[in-house]
Amino acid sequence: MYNSEEDLGQSVVKAFMNFKRAELQNFKVAGLKRSETRFLFMLHQGLRHADHEQGMKVSDATAILRVSKPSVTQQINALEEKKLIIRSQDPVDKRAAYIQLTEQGKKVVEEIISTFHKNFEDMTLFLGKEEMERLISLLDKLTEYLNKKAENEEV
């Protein structure tokens, strides 16, 4: 089917790009950018494990998302403007800030989760349970390989 490893490699890249494009079309939440959706979902997950009543530290969000502090600040500003999150200052350490979801933000996160579940149910119906499990297994295996490769190259 493929003439060379180069053709195979190009086909893998093309498949990933096509999947990403299709995923962006199907996992949209009205009125939000993809990055905002991702941020809200991450915040929701982080708040489930947060041990501070003010919410999640902004610095923790930066670490989880693996993006720069200015990028996180930009996301926070946009989501605050949409009244989906609130930011507060640590009363003890004035340099630290916390973020948490507003009631409206919690409703939006419920919609995000519902949209994700519906899309994954649809994909499972399309592929069948066995193929979906195989896809997950292959993606997990590939992710493990790429993570190990990245770790070895960083050393």
Automatic annotation (TrEMBL):
GO terms for molecular function: DNA binding; DNA-binding transcription factor activity. Keywords: DNA-binding. Residues 5-144 form the HTH marR-type domain. It holds the Pfam family MarR. One of its GO terms (biological process) is response to stress. Signal peptide: none annotated. This is MarR family transcriptional regulator.
